[in-house]
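Note to self: keep these together.
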Amino acid sequence: MTLGHGAETRAALARLDALLKRGTATVLGPLAPDAALCELYRRRGALEGSPDDARAPTRVVVVPFAGLPKPVLRRWKASGHEVLDLTLPAVRRAQTSLGLLALEHAKPLVCGFHDDAECASISGEVAGAAVVEDADEAALLPFAPKFGMVCQTLVSRRRAGVVAEALRQRHPDSRMVFLDTTSPATGERERSVEALSRWAEVILIAGEATEASVRALVETSRRLGLPAFPVADAGAIDRGVIAGAARIGLTAGEFSPDLVVDAIAARLETEP
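Structure:
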C-alpha cells in the first residue's frame, strides 16, 4: 500500500508540467522539500533561483508549494516577470486562518517545525507569530489573554493536539482557539499507516527524513508500536532494518515522486 502526493500537490504538478511544455521557468527556491522531486523537475526544464534575486533568467517564475510572503510576490510581479503561483491551497487556508485569529487579538501561533519553509511561510504572514514545535516549547510560552493556533499542513494531527493541550495546561486562564489546518491528505496518510499496522512488521516511508509529512508518518507508526524508517530512494534502503521481516509496508510522504515509490517497491520485491 502506498500513498504519496495528495490531490492538491498533483494538481500543482500538472500546472507546472503544462508550463514546462512551453519552455523553461525559474522556481523561486526549492519546489518542495524533497531532493528527488526537485531533481525530476530540473530535468524537465525547471531552473532553481532564489526569491531574493533581483531578476530571473526566464520570463516565467514559479512560486514553490510552500508559498512566499506577499511582498516578495508583488516585487516579482512588478519586475515584469510572469508569476505562476503554486502555493498549495492548504497552505493558503492556514495563512488565512492565522490572519483571522490575529485580527481577533489572539497571540498567533503555528504548530510546526522551525526549519520548514512551509511553516515559515505561514507564520511570516502575521506579525509577531511564533512557531511551536512540541509540548515542551508550548510550556515555555509567556501568558497571553488569548492564543490562536493553526498548524503546518503536514504535521501529524496528534502532535498538534498535544501542543494545544500543553498550552491549555500551561495557561488555564487564557482563552485558547485551535484551528486544525492539516491537509486532507495528511489524515489519509495517517489512516494508511494505521491500516498497514494491522499487517506489516515494519514500514518504510518514501521521502526525506526531515520532511514534515514523513516525520508525521514516522510518529504515527511508532505510536502504533511499528518500526518505521524513512527512505529517500531505492538506493537508500538499509537491509538491516528489514532483515527477517516477512511483511514490509510501504507508504510515502507528500512530495516523494511516484517513480521513487515504484523503484523502492520494485527493489523490495526483486531482492531477497
